[in-house]
Amino acid sequence: MKENFDSIVIHYDEIGLKGKNRTHFENKLIDNIKSKLKTISKRCIRESGQITITIDSKSNIEKIRDILTKIPGIAHFSFAKRSELDLEKIKKQSIAIIKEKDFKTFKVDTKRHDKNFRIKSPEVNAIIGAEINETYNKEVDLKNPDLTLKIDLTSRNSYLSYEDIKGVGGLPTNKKQKVVALLSGGFDSPVAAYLMMKRGCEVIFVHFQNQNQMTGSVQDKIIQLAKQLSKFQLNTKLYIVPFEKLQKEIIMKVHSTLRMLVYRRFMIKIASKIAAENRARFLVVGDSLSQVASQTLENLESTYKDSEKHIFSPLIGMDKKEIIAISRTIGTNDISALPYGDCCSYFLPKHPELKATAGKLQFMEKEFDIGSLVEEAVKSAKLKEF
Ligand code: ATP
Ligand code: MG
Predict the structure, then answer these.
(1) Over the stretch 258-296, which tens digit does the pLDDT of each residue have?
(2) C-alpha distances in angstroms, 112 versus 79, 105, 178, 258?
(3) How does the average pLDDT of the chain come out, rounded?
(4) Which of 107, 139, 166 is a domain's end point?
(5) Which of 15, 24, 73, 284 has the smallest set of CB atoms within 10 Å of its CB?
(6) Whose CA is nearest to atom 31 of ligand 1?
(7) CATH code of the domain covering residue 198
(8) One domain, residues 139 and 231
(9) Which ligand is nearest to the CA of 294?
(10) What is the mean pLDDT of residues 96-113?
(11) Which of 149, 166, 183 lies at the terminal end of a domain, its last residue?
(12) Tens digits of per-residue pLDDT, 155-204?
């Protein structure tokens, strides 16, 4: 980059609303940024209600952008050039930073985050605007400018930038807020997991490996999904649970119209144990109301009914289209679209039960030695960490 940015200004929305806990959230976000940027960030501090990072002017901007757009808690950020709190220096720097930019119209948008600087924002806008107009002969357009020069004034520095990059938003990852997400190879569950990460949870993944899946390629796909999602948090665990034996038993003992529901109740029992082992508080699934037969209100009620852990379904009110749109922004869409053996046909009868009661499912489950089946599944799970 020709601009040789030396800083990044990070803005956060919701942390700002946290009242007394604000510092706690800010410190968490700073720690998370430092841990993700490692040596790239030379200094990462709180400065007048925002976070500023000092970087080497030769840093790989694209790489940093990719990392910062995936850190929960960051609402938006800009690569910037730092200057002292001195109007003449700000003028000079403003002219320099936009030198190579191609634009016809512009505006200056100053924010005094600290009233230390004696000149008010509108006045700074006017002074710097006049300087740019004089130097480059460009016109001011306050409504729809080609270029917006942003000036952030903190208690000690001024930061100049012209591109505002959108982040994840939400809240910084808190390693103590753990949940376990049931991750299938589809489009929905990765989005459900992401939405929990966005709210500050650390998500542990559990995948149940189906009988008819070609082991290698499915594992590959699930690992790819978990790896992509791991970019949004600090540490990621993925449990792959072999499910073949249990599936066979379900096929033998449960009527085809109910198999999917018994199957899902077993997944929940096993995932609850893994959650308990990891001190995770909730389970997370990618259910969306009435998207498929197993997700009618009645079936969801009986599926969730006996779960040891409470279950979150962050996609419950979302349309498929909305889910797909998010999957594109988080980079899981292309991975989810890869072919894989979805649940076998024994679990997808032509006319599945739409209103199964929990009692009916509990009755079916009497045929199983649930305790030892669950224990065996948990024991045989393979753990991968990213
Ligand atoms: P997805 O697109 O995430 O696969 P779906 O619409 O295909 O969801 P189902 O197959 O009915 O829905 O599964 C509902 C939810 O159950 C999934 O979102 C996921 O949380 C969980 N789930 C289903 N299959 C598996 C599996 N093999 N391993 C782990 N979780 C699963
Ligand atoms: Mg699925």
Answers:
(1) 999 999 999 999 999 999 999 999 999 999 999 998 999
(2) 18, 24, 38, 62
(3) 93
(4) 166
(5) 24
(6) 184
(7) 3.40.50.620
(8) no
(9) 1
(10) 95
(11) 166
(12) 999 999 999 999 999 999 999 999 999 999 999 999 999 999 999 999 99
Do 104 and 153 lie in a common domain? yes
User: Which ligand has its closest atom nearest to the C-alpha of 381?
Assistant: 1
Query: Contacts for 268-272 with beta carbons within 8 Å, 24 or more apart?
Result: 268/182, 268/303, 268/304, 268/307, 268/309, 268/311, 269/306, 269/307, 269/308, 269/370, 269/374, 270/206, 270/208, 270/241, 270/374, 270/377, 270/378, 271/180, 271/182, 271/206, 271/309, 272/307, 272/308, 272/309
Which tokens go with 122?
């509108």
pLDDT at position 219, please?
78
Kindly give the distance from the C-alpha atom of residue 188 to the centroid of ligand 2, in angstroms, as a whole number.
Answer: 7
Domain that holds residue 280: 174-385
Indicate the pLDDT class of residue 1, thresholds 50, 70 and 90: very low
Report the distance separating Cα 76 and Cα 94, nearest Å: 21
For ligand 1, the distance from its centroid to the CA atom of residue 56, given in whole angstroms, is 44
How many angstroms does the Cα of residue 187 sit away from the middle of ligand 2?
A: 8
Q: Which residue has the tokens 């009527």?
A: 255
